[in-house]
């Protein structure tokens, strides 16, 4: 049999890959597999993958026959897998909430953490959230030696000057918590804004591909092959409208989260932080799901047509009408399930 997939830290950092080794499955071959989203936004079980043979994937309905499960009684692994394939995203932040809701235990909680390499990548994004913390403890001149959120935690855990300790106590009073509880508050603070930084980086990474894709759609509509094809024009306008609506939704939420995180520090308290963190977490499913869908769709397009000179208009048009269009309804439905921005404080 082909060698199973070897999980890597990149899997933990992905929106569209879930190593099944993290969940309590009985079937050895499944424990070494992964769930992946394909270009149609379907969840497939990837049993093996390598450069020579490619990716060996199964649909959820293929599992009983593949593993010889008794059809008279549903296999425990089948029950778990049927729930997991319905999840819109496999990023660690969405999974934390989803697995809890599905009452699926995991043995190693570290599997639901971003890799150290990814956390390091997000340092720039985290800066806007670390500066207010430093300002509370050291004032405006305290950020000189801060390059990551880990540096922030070190300052709070081991204050080396009397002034820092005094400010630490002051912050504890503001938060209405014990001074020794401040480090735990900071861990929660770092985690919630790391999630926001992660999703923001995902969006920033695919935004140029989205722009190029929308430009390509307009060029296809104007080309002689399709300018009289009303069906194709309608399809591309529908796809364009979905992408624009989803992009407007997710960017609008990020702007709202930014406003909430900034206003939090105007009258900081443990209760106010809980409100903001609850707000951000409540959108993990939507943000993770729509970004996963956009990521998969855009990278499918970019892989097929990496430059403007690759792929004839007919090939590009066929791709849009087949692979790309499928699953767009799922993405739009998820986006429209989000609370209205007016409801976000």
What this model shows, in words?
- This protein is mostly helical.
- It contains 15 helices and 4 strands.
- It has a 4-stranded antiparallel β-sheet.
- A hairpin with a 3-residue loop joins strand 3 and strand 4.
- The chain is globular.
Write the layout of secondary structure elements.
Layout (H helix, E strand, L loop, with lengths): L8 H4 L4 E3 L8 H4 L2 E4 L5 E8 L3 E5 L4 H5 L8 H9 L7 H10 L14 H6 L1 H16 L10 H9 L4 H14 L6 H41 L7 H35 L5 H12 L2 H21 L8 H12 L3 H9 L9
Antiparallel strand pairs: 1-2, 2-3, 3-4
Helix pairs in contact: 5-13, 7-10, 8-10, 10-11, 10-12, 10-13, 11-12, 11-14, 11-15, 13-15
Distance between the termini: 55 Å
Gyration radius over CA: 23 Å
pLDDT < 50 runs, ≥5 residues: 1-7
In N-to-C order, the SSE pattern is: HEHEEEHHHHHHHHHHHHH
Q: Please state how the strands of the largest beta sheet are arranged side by side.
A: 1-2-3-4
Note the total helix count. 15
Fraction of residues in helix? 55-70%
Question: Tally of extended strands?
Answer: 4
Average pLDDT taken over every residue:
88
Question: How many domain units?
Answer: 3
Biggest sheet features: 4 strands, antiparallel
Structural class by helix and strand composition: mainly alpha
Which outline best applies?
A: globular
Keywords:
4 strands; four-stranded antiparallel beta sheet; globular; 60% helix; 345 residues; disordered N terminus; single chain; mainly alpha; 15 helices
In short:
The chain is mainly alpha-helical and 345 residues long. Helix content is 60%, strand content 6%.
